[in-house]
Write a structure and sequence with these properties.
Blueprint: H1 3-30, H2 32-39, H3 52-83, H4 89-96, H5 98-129, H6 139-156, H7 159-168, H8 174-179, H9 181-195, H10 200-239
Helix pairs in contact: 1-3, 3-5, 3-6, 5-6, 7-10, 9-10
Length: about 240
């Protein structure tokens, strides 16, 4: 295809992604009050708002995050379909696994942040102020806190897929990841400390899963790297 056809194809893919996001957003928004009640069911207090616009902003924020989660696999599929004509049959089979895996990892990151990190951090902060402060949360501040404790993990959990992709195009190698492991661990510790409260237990509960993800990423990188070398050797033989 020439450049005009490529741009037209890209426009179609973007329209599909945007349409799915809008439909998912509307569908979530229809049940937003039930979703809100479920998210706040474990709180021992009713959240306050400081203005009428806060209500719609909170509802929109919740709907947007859930709509992104629904749209992500569709977005990955559309990117794959756009790139597919330029891929070999082996690359098509290899990259097809990215679509369901990206969705599962995104949801896994959200679940880890919501069910593991969020309760630990919230209980720690409440215990810190118990007997000293009167606790009252505004809905806006509370959901900013929830998003901060969940959304970053959704993207951090995509690490294995990112590593596999970068390995497949030759930017990363498992040897390089082994060599730079200490720097990666240092980065993981820094990110974990920034995301979790300042106590040892919370830091460990965040650091360990991220280190495991990094080690899994190295193992997956080895598999992709071997396949890439094999493919390059076959291509060289065909040229000869």
């Amino acid at each position: 295809m020439d450049i005009v056809d490529h741009l037209d194809e890209l426009r179609k893919r973007i329209i599909i992604i945007a349409s799915v996001f809008i439909i998912a957003f509307i569908a979530v928004f229809i049940y937003i009050q039930d979703i809100y009640a479920w998210i706040t069911k474990d709180l021992d207090m009713q959240l306050a708002v400081l203005g009428p616009l806060d209500i719609i902003v909170i509802y929109f924020s919740i709907a947007a995050v859930l709509a992104i989660a629904v749209t992500l696999p569709v977005a990955v599929l559309q990117i794959w379909l756009f790139s597919k004509p330029g891929l070999t049959k082996a690359e098509v089979r290899a990259t097809a696994v990215y679509i369901p895996a990206s969705f599962l990892l995104f949801i896994g990151g959200l679940a880890f942040g919501y069910f593991v990190v969020l309760p630990i951090v919230l209980n720690f902060l409440l215990a810190l102020g118990e007997g000293t402060f009167q606790t009252m949360f505004t809905a806006d501040r509370y959901f900013q806190f929830v998003l901060r404790m969940t959304v970053p993990f959704s993207f951090l959990f995509e690490m294995p897929l990112v590593v596999m992709f970068l390995t497949s195009i030759g930017i990363l190698t498992p040897m390089g990841m082994h060599k730079n492991r200490k720097y990666a661990y240092f980065g993981i510790v820094v990110v974990s400390v920034l995301l979790s409260p300042p106590d040892f237990l919370s830091d460990v509960l965040v650091i360990i899963p991220l280190i495991l993800l990094y080690e899994i990423s190295i193992s997956l990188s080895k598999i992709v790297y071997k396949r890439r070398l094999k493919r390059l050797q076959q291509e060289e033989k065909e040229i000869e």
